[in-house]
Specification:
Layout (H helix, E strand, L loop, with lengths): L4 E9 L4 H11 L13 H5 L4 E7 L4 E9 L7 H9 L8 E7 L11 H9 L6 E5 L8 H13 L4 E3 L12 H19 L4 E5 L7 H10 L4 E5 H4 L1 H9 L7 E4 L3 H5 L8 E3 L1 H11 L4 E5 L9 H12 L9 E5 L7 H8 L4 E4 L1 H4 L5 H16 L12 H10 L4
Helix pairs in contact: 5-6, 5-15, 11-12, 15-16
Length: 401
């Protein structure tokens, strides 16, 4: 690919003049029309105009228009990219971005990604299991520490705040970190590996980096970040900062505002493989949360696999990011998830751990027992389950289909 070009594919409805529409988009999002007022600038201005590469029908309802934008029209970041390729035209009528090809060195490269997270946890030969603090709100910092001790001692690999756990008076973020840090150290010494706690980073844009540094100084060893609420520029600033030297897990909250229906059939917005794959990877995310198609949120399986492939692709000079399928993950889906992802995945569960009938530690062990069945080539079913914790989990949430 030409390193000077950004190639964007737009899905357009076939019942319009798609050639004309694509040309309007290419011109309107770059130079706009011009007259002869600056005759000595005509050649230079032409260098900033986008070119329509082709407009091809894909079925009887849609066509795909590919447009090449000069990369010099952006500031090598995600906000200027989105404004340059879709800004005001996103208000003009039906058009949906379904693919973006970016120059090799565009954006920010993740500091950790799959390899870095593996190195921190010292786990290389299986999927990683992450829990989500439940209940999310209403507890005190010491209550979260108690929950953490329970699941960490049972062998959980990672834990994270819920995305709605902000810096609230009931349990300030810094106090949560200070309460949980001794537990992390104790469990690290006991089990010989590091548990990662992704604490939810919040605050005004001008405070985010200093807030992150304060949390890291207090012992935070990972961060959770709501990218769509705070903006890609904030993620880029965090990813690029040398003192924000812990993995950043990004959350998809509000992605539906831009992506719309999860079926992929919209005529407006941006496809989820772009929102949760390409943009996250080029903004420096180390691990990306998104809905699993077999979870509690409706999500298309093909789209899920596209996100997986984009995040894990080992492009030159680009660190592969860790996929984190989420929302409704439970032990009964471990076999299916392993078929889809193999080892390089974080399986993220909240209720299936903390609402287990026998308690949170049993919830962790149910995932471990489900993994042992999967590793041995057996489906995760009630017939094969050889522990009460797994039997209870499968009865409550379902077995492998």
């Amino acid at each position: 690919m030409d390193s000077r070009k950004i190639i964007v594919s737009y899905r357009l409805p076939a019942n319009i003049d798609t050639e004309k529409y694509a040309t309007m988009l290419a011109v309107g999002q770059t130079t706009g029309s011009w007259d002869e007022a600056f005759p000595d600038q005509q050649a230079e201005m032409a260098n900033y105009r986008a070119d329509v590469l082709d407009v091809l029908p894909v079925d009887d309802k849609h066509a795909i228009a590919r447009i090449a934008f000069p990369s010099q029209n952006t500031e090598n970041d995600i906000p200027s990219l989105l404004t340059a390729i879709f800004g005001k035209f996103s208000l003009a009528g039906p058009a949906r971005i379904c693919n973006i090809e970016l120059p090799e060195k565009y954006g920010i490269n993740a500091q950790f990604g799959i390899e870095g997270i593996r190195k921190q946890t010292s786990i290389y030969d299986r999927p990683l299991f992450m829990g989500i603090f439940k209940p999310a709100l209403g507890l005190k910092p010491e209550n979260y520490a108690t929950l953490l001790r329970t699941v960490a001692d049972a062998g959980l690999d990672l834990i994270k705040d819920d995305e709605i756990m902000f810096n609230l008076n009931s349990a300030p973020t810094l106090d949560r970190v200070k309460a949980c840090q001794p537990i992390i150290h104790e469990m690290n010494d006991k089990h010989g590996r590091q548990l990662l706690y992704a604490v939810n980073l919040s605050g005004r844009a001008d405070q985010l980096v200093s807030n992150a540094r304060q949390l890291i100084d207090a012992g935070a060893n990972a961060l959770l970040f709501n990218v769509f609420a705070y903006g890609f520029s904030c993620l880029e600033a965090l990813s690029a900062h040398p003192e924000v030297n812990v993995p950043i897990f990004t959350h998809p909250a509000l992605a539906g505002v831009l992506g719309g229906s999860t079926s992929g059939n919209n005529d407006y917005g941006i496809d989820y493989n772009i929102l949760l794959g390409t943009l996250m990877k080029y903004a420096g995310a180390d691990a990306v949360l998104y809905p699993a198609s077999y979870g509690s949120l409706p999500f298309d399986h093909q789209i899920e696999m596209q996100i997986r492939d984009i995040l894990r692709s080992a492009d030159k000079n680009r660190t592969p990011a860790m996929p984190v399928p989420s929302a409704g993950i439970h032990p009964g889906i471990i076999g299916t998830a392993y078929q889809d992802y193999g080892n390089d995945v974080v399986l993220n569960a909240g209720s299936a751990i903390f609402d287990h009938p026998l308690g949170a530690a049993a919830g962790v062990r149910a995932f471990q027992d489900a993994w042992e069945l999967t590793k041995s080539g057996q489906p995760v079913t009630l017939e094969n389950a050889n522990s009460q914790v797994l039997i209870d989990a499968l009865k409550k949430w379902g077995e492998e289909k």
